[in-house]
Design brief:
Largest sheet: none
Distance between the termini: 20 Å
Number of helices: 4
Strand content: under 5%
Order of helices and strands: HHHH
Shape: globular
Radius of gyration: 11 Å
Oligomer: single chain
């Protein structure tokens, strides 16, 4: 695995919040994030990555 894969994976910081309509500085509610993760396309990819990164924080 790449040494700094997280930095390379996040090409457009803030894109998920902007696409979901969440203001900058606020957190995305877990239910809203889970619903977005089930969707196809970039929105789903970004939401799934956000869920993965959230798990790594603990």
């Amino acid at each position: 695995m790449a040494e700094k894969w997280i930095q390379k994976a996040i090409k457009k910081p803030g894109a998920l919040k902007k696409e979901m309509g969440v203001p900058a500085g606020k957190t995305i509610p877990a239910k809203k994030l889970a619903a977005a993760a089930k969707k196809p396309g970039k929105l789903g990819q970004r939401a799934r990555l956000a869920e993965t990164l959230e798990k790594m924080k603990k």
